[in-house]
Design brief:
Elements (H helix, E strand, L loop, with lengths): L9 E5 L4 E6 L17 H14 L5 E6 L3 E3 L29 H20 L5 E5 L2 E3 L1 H8 L2 E4 L4 E3 L12 H9 L1 H10 L1 E3 H7 L4 E2 L5 H13 L3 H14 L4 H16 L2 H12 L9
Parallel strand pairs: 2-3, 3-5, 4-6, 5-7, 6-8, 7-10
Antiparallel strand pairs: 1-2, 8-9
Length: 285
């Protein structure tokens, strides 16, 4: 695993059972993010932690959640952490450049935010958002980038309207596919979505009482980890690709993947475990 520079406002908690918990840790501010796109900012650290978990063979599932009452309240608009758009800021992933005005703003939003969000959706391993409270702005976007979302009666999604922005950072893309056009537009016009409605719309996979939320997420992770990791990883890629593909293309993907999986170590171990009536020990190969 790559060497991580840990920060106190984002926790990296790896358990022996294969679950990695990445937790926003500013409960006094509903876990609002620190910084913008710089290397030590919350968004960059989420991407760094995600990549580290993806590279760690002992990690099987990654759970993103918040400490306290909130999931992540997005940018700290009441504090000084977000800052203003400075024309010569050198954001993560950019070479030094000279720009000003609107061009600098575009660079910040693409290179600083949207590009970093892709670190979540590009992770091979299953990602679960345990949306334990308010998910606002790019806090909501990060939850939508995850593969699965569990919430409770305390879950609330809040869009960007209150700070004069549109749904961005992949949020508009995923929300439309999860909820459908009409519901996505309704949310984009109103800016608020409670937990029960989010579950009804398909934005949340499941809603459970808040005092049972962590137990339910742990049970979900256990069910995921009983399956061959290689199958899980390839399933994820094929299904995500199928969202923007045709039946023909998806069939080609699956017909190419199936023979590879059939001869993998994980497949052989799965068949042996069934024959011998024991728990499998998968290697992810």
């Amino acid at each position: 695993m790559q060497q991580l520079e840990l920060v106190p406002y984002l926790l990296f908690e790896k358990e022996d059972n294969g679950i990695l918990w990445i937790k926003f840790n500013r409960p006094e501010k509903l876990n609002a993010a620190i910084g913008g796109a710089e290397r030590t900012g919350t968004l960059a650290k989420v991407g760094e932690y995600m990549r580290a978990g993806d590279d760690d063979p002992d990690v099987k599932v990654i759970v993103l959640t918040g400490v306290g009452r909130g999931f992540c309240a997005g940018a700290d608009v009441r504090g000084s952490d977000l800052g203003d758009f400075e024309p010569n800021d050198n954001y993560l992933g950019n070479a030094p450049y000279e720009a000003g005005g609107l061009d600098a703003t575009r660079q910040r939003f693409y290179c600083g935010l949207t590009k970093l969000m892709r670190d979540i959706s590009y992770v091979r391993k299953p990602t679960v958002a345990m949306v334990n409270g308010v998910a606002a702005g790019f806090g909501m976007d990060m939850a939508l980038q995850c593969d699965i979302r569990y919430g409770s009666e305390k879950t609330r999604f809040i869009a960007y309207q209150q700070v004069g922005q549109i749904i961005e950072n992949g949020g508009a893309y995923h929300l439309t596919r999860l909820a459908g056009l009409g519901r996505a537009l309704e949310f984009s016009f109103t800016g608020h979505l409670d937990g029960p409605t989010a579950a009804e719309w398909g934005v949340l996979n499941r809603i459970v009482p808040s005092d049972e939320l962590e137990d339910e997420v742990r049970a979900l992770c256990a069910r995921i980890m009983r399956n061959p990791p290689l199958v899980t990883w390839i399933n994820k890629r094929v299904i995500r690709a199928a969202m923007d593909s045709t039946l023909e293309t998806t069939s080609v993907l699956t017909s190419n993947a199936s023979p590879i999986l059939a001869t993998s170590e994980d497949a052989e171990e799965a068949r042996a475990a069934l024959r011998e009536r024991r728990e499998p020990d998968f290697a992810g190969r």
